């Protein structure tokens, strides 16, 4: 009894979907209408042979820049310069530098020399 009621309900829902036509947005109706694209269909830009799709300007005329171009150029160049300065002046946080400094301090505290200085030997007399 329960199975037949479920089957009847599913048949009614399918009939409603078919009779409602393509205006419904249920997944089943999308399957019957074909593939759905988020970009509202297929789109293809035919290659024109020009760099970035822009035709060259006639002789004597300047190319008109778009609004975003100067912002992009100055922002990109400025951020690269800023990154270069920051990398150049970054603090030395390597383990080797810390260990060398620590070793020098400990050797000085013990009274040892941390630089090699050859001892002077008396000149041999003949």
Describe the overall structure.
The chain has 126 residues and is mostly helical. The chain contains four helices and no strands. The chain has helices at 2-20, 27-33, 67-88, 95-110. The longest helix has 22 residues, at 67-88. The radius of gyration is 39 Å and the shape is elongated. The chain starts with a helix and ends in a 16-residue tail after the last helix. The model has no long low-confidence stretch (mean pLDDT 80).
Task: Note the topology.
Blueprint: H1 2-20, H2 27-33, H3 67-88, H4 95-110
Family: Belongs to the complex I NDUFB11 subunit family.
Subunit structure: Complex I is composed of 45 different subunits. Interacts with BCAP31.
Subcellular location: Mitochondrion inner membrane
Q: In a few lines, what is going on in this structure?
A:
The chain has helices spanning about 1-20, 25-35, 65-90, 95-110.
| Helical run tally | 4
Kindly report how far apart the N and C termini lie: 127 Å
List how many beta strands DSSP finds: 0
* Rg, alpha carbons: 39 Å
Q: Give the percentage of residues in beta strands.
A: under 5%
The outline comes out as: elongated
Q: Average pLDDT, to the nearest integer?
A: 80
Structural class: mainly alpha
Task: Report the biggest beta sheet as strand number plus sense, adding barrel if it closes.
Answer: none
